[in-house]
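Bench notes, afternoon.
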Amino acid sequence: MKVTIRVDVTMDYGETESFEICQLERPYRELDPARIGLSLAEGKDVLHWLQRIVVAAQAEEVCLLRRFCDRCHRFLDLKDRRIRKVDTVFGTVRFRSARVISCACVPPFHFEGPYGPMSEYVPERATPELLALQAKLSARTPYRQVVQTLREFLPVSDTLNHVTVRNRALRAAARIDGDELTASDDARPDARWTLAIDGGFVRGRRNSECSSFEVLTGRLTAKGHPPRAFASVRRELPDAVDRLAQLVRSITNSEHPKLSVITDGANGLQTIADQLPFTPKSVLDWFHISMRVRYLEQIAKGLRATSEPENAAKHKLTARIGKLRWCFWHGNAAKAASRMREILTICRSVVPQTPQAADSLAQLGYRVRELVAYVKANGGSTINYGKLYREGEPISTAMAESAVNQILNKRMCKRQQMRWSPRGAQLLAQVRCAVINGDLDERLEMIRQRPKPLSLEVAVFLDKFRRASESLPQGF
């Protein structure tokens, strides 16, 4: 059996041309399981040749149709043709790009000069689809593995390496970094939103000034809305408060949203929440309070009482620590402070008979003072957790901790033996957040469709040229 693959290309002006891509032979006597259908290598070759034909035909069509002036209907002169290259999903393609002499009747400058029509459609060395694909894969796996995956399944160029993939991924990240997000269509200004913030540490480069740096991560969510992950390097962004405020306002579609900020009270995260331009409701993570109380319960339970005073003290400490959890759960901070003072008084008044009991009481007193300092440092953040839980609102930073694991640990930490610069980690975190949120393609397309602002020098030159052309007499 012989299979011939041909392509018929019909231009918009009616001309048709046929191209033969390849011929495949499958003799019956040589047929075996490995020669059923197309192989992966044959499929990649077919796609690559088809891509070359389509791109070359598009370049010729653009060149011919753009040589007609829309105002005077004159056939414009052709200056030359140059060979250009563009990296696509189906390989690197070379095509002939023509340069056309512009018509003098086209405003506002009215002069003749060469320009390339294909430059509007191929502004970069890679297509937007390939840039988005490499950015997505780079957000999930290391750059070298991205190159191996692309070479395995797509007819990419042999010169593709991990440096090119990294540069393109970071270029896509730089475009979406700091770009204002769009609010969802069903975002209600009166919705109750929850912002969970946590931090994770990433190892810095050896020649960097820091061995590790912190990355703030978390999620913004509300009932009926999909959660939105975010991340930013804390050292590189001193305006972390402005960044969080922009994120919240753009997603919630409100200048003063109803917002609850949940933190674990560590590394000054509560300070960032207090500096937001609107007034959020600060919530201290219940899990961290519960674990600290749980530690006190374990110390009191493990106290080895050998005398009657020690046994009585153990029962009193166990009862008061149990009530301490109840006070925190119901948001009674005053009663919780009273219970902790009672625990400290018992620890100081009891005379231990054995070194083990003395160590347990000293450790219990130290942990209680630590809990007092923790609650005092995050004053006003201990709320009625029971009421909030019954209303179906989150009371812990579990979704922020999962964001740390999903954004940072799986790509930059744990088994990924890599070191990062703050700028590289910042950009890759933006791509990973966009991939998790599922809007990377949409954001890159919106940015690509925006008009590119001219530099100051070019704008000044064009303005002077326009004024000079307007000052010339009619018909000059």
